[in-house]
Write a structure and sequence with these properties.
By secondary structure, this protein is α/β, with parallel strands linked by helices. The chain has a single domain, classed as 3-Layer(aba) Sandwich (Rossmann fold). It has helices at 5-11, 13-20, 27-34, 54-60, 72-81, 115-128, 162-171; strands at 42-46, 64-69, 86-89, 101-106, 129-139, 144-150, 153-159, 174-183, 189-196. It has a seven-stranded mixed sheet, sandwiched between helices. Strands 6-7 form a two-stranded antiparallel sheet. Helix 4 links the parallel strand 1 (42-46) and strand 2 (64-69). Helix 6 (115-128) packs parallel to helix 7 (162-171). It is globular.
Length: 198
């Protein structure tokens, strides 16, 4: 089922894009994230979708953006909307960035990967960030794997235990700045904000 995530988002690209443009629950977390990203700084958005509303908000804030998404249809929407930014139709697990970033964002994307792949990605985040760079991502609230339902289709999700995420972040040289489990203000997301210590 994890390998069907790209197919799911390709099939429902326009419905998902329309739904995403209808709400912006993550805005407060993005504002906290941007406090640590200098104007003109470069952000890597993993699971960027069609670029609305998050990519637009980051671009309008004066940051440069590289967006990565496993869905070709999603990336096509983002490229059409923001042609001056970098858009990569790739799996985050295999993408090879050509430079480091001041910020990395993985909102509602990392949790589509199996637990072992999530652990590997957190190690990469530490490598991909500039010194004192910042990371914002969402997870499930507790250890487990399952399938939700979106647009009538099953969609894979997985999570580690919060203590395991904290340990992985520490190993990657990242310190947790803020953590909210099932944050009501962001639509019930479990949110992590961390920075690279050096």
């Amino acid at each position: 089922m994890p390998d069907r995530v790209a197919e799911h988002y390709d099939r429902h690209a326009h419905a998902f894009d329309e739904a995403r443009r209808a709400g912006f629950a993550e805005r407060n977390w993005l504002d906290r994230f941007l406090l640590a990203v200098p104007r003109g700084g470069h952000i890597l958005d993993l699971g960027c979708g069609g670029g609305e509303p998050v990519s637009r908000y980051l671009i309008d804030s004066g940051r440069k953006l590289t967006g990565v998404d496993v869905s070709g249809r999603m990336i096509a929407l983002a490229r059409t909307r923001f042609p001056r930014q970098d858009w990569l139709h790739e799996d985050m697990r295999t993408v090879v960035p050509w430079h480091r970033f001041h910020g990395i964002l993985a909102w509602d994307s990392l949790f589509h990967l199996p637990p072992d792949d999530q652990a590997a990605m957190i190690a990469k985040f530490g490598e991909w960030l500039e010194p004192h760079g910042v990371l914002l991502f969402t997870t499930g609230p507790a250890h487990g794997e399952g399938a939700g339902c979106q647009f009538g289709d099953a969609l894979y999700h997985a999570s580690l235990d919060p203590a395991a995420y904290r340990d992985l972040l520490r190993q990657a040289g990242l310190a947790v700045i803020a953590f909210a489990q099932e944050d009501a203000a962001s639509g019930g997301h479990t949110v992590w904000l961390a920075h690279k210590e050096r």
